[in-house]
Amino acid sequence: MPIVEARNLSHVFADGTAAIEDVNLQIEPKEFVVIAGPNGSGKTVFIRHLNGLLAPTRGQVLINGESIAKNLLQTRKKVGMVFQDSDSQIVGQTVEEDVAFGPENLNLPPEEVEKLVSESLQAVGLESYAAQNPHTLSGGLKKKLAIAGILAMKPEVIIFDEPFAGLDYPGTVQVLKQIVALHASGHTILLVTHELEKVLAHANRLMIISQGKLVKNGAPSEVIGSCESYGIRMPLRENEGIETLTWLK
Ligand SMILES: Nc1ncnc2c1ncn2[C@@H]1O[C@H](COP(=O)(O)OP(=O)(O)O)[C@@H](O)[C@H]1O
Ligand SMILES: [Mg+2]
Fold first, then answer.
1. Ligand nearest the Cα atom of residue 165
2. Would you say the pTM of this structure is higher than 0.70?
3. Which ligand 1 atom is at minimum distance from the Cα of 15?
4. Does the beta carbon of 20 sit less than 6 angstroms from any atom of ligand 1?
């Protein structure tokens, strides 16, 4: 059974903008899916439907075969979202408090919250920053903090919206290694990016969204040739295959 499924998903905003139109897809457990598409093509609007941050105008989203409309709280636990803007995701005065926010809202006992916080900080290597003000962290570490906050909810699926945007090279490497480790530990990964060269070597599937429609969906080696025609810049030189994208493997 697919872990994530979108059926005829459409979203029209109040001003009449049809941001996504009739999107159908299925994602199996433990896949690593990259979603690419030009600016304004509907990527963010699409993924925000997958954990109920946006409700569809038409169609539905199913997680493990169940419509998310039935249980939004359960969905938010199962499907974690790492936003493009890490600052907007910071809610605590300290790193520790920030990670505790999610489990505290589930009304878990304090000792359980403490355990989840410590495990999550350890998973992203932020234990030594526990008492620090999140706003003083580097871009890469803020992204890791957002990931820790999501791990504390024990999600099955983790969605990343442009995780490398605004990061310098060390930050990018830090975050990419973390994402690859999350996949290796059994999470299903969905990642929106236009920086395909950074992640494609790790993905088993590439989707292209253009003008609100899912126009390509297949193995990266099959889909990659279509990227430029949809305005997605491919930094590879001619005759270089996808094998050259293994710089972090
Ligand atoms: N709250 C909103 N109200 C009206 N239009 C919106 C809103 N949010 C996004 N849009 C529009 O929906 C389209 C898709 O946006 P988005 O999903 O953010 O694109 P991207 O692929 O860059 O992530 C764009 O035309 C955008 O202007
Ligand atoms: Mg976006």
1. 2
2. yes
3. 4
4. no
- Helix/strand/coil (H/E/C) assignment for every residue in the chain: CCCEEEEEEEEECCCCCEEEEEEEEEECCCCEEEEECCCCCCHHHHHHHHCCCCCCCEEEEEECCEEHHHCHHHHHHHEEEECCCHHHHCCCCCHHHHHHHHHHHCCCCHHHHHHHHHHHHHHHCCHHHCCCCHHHCCHHHHHHHHHHHHHCCCCCEEEEECCCCCCCHHHHHHHHHHHHHHHHCCCEEEEECCCHHHHHHHCCEEEEEECCEEEEEECHHHHHHHCHHHCCCCCCCCCCCHHHHCCCC
Can you tell me which atom of ligand 1 is nearest the CA of 209? 21
| Closest-approaching ligand to the CA atom of 231 | 1
Report whether CATH 3.40.50.300 matches the domain 4-245.
Answer: yes
Looking at ligand 1, which residue's alpha carbon is closest to its atom 8? 45
Question: pLDDT digit string (tens) for 19-49?
Answer: 999 999 999 999 999 999 999 999 999 999 9
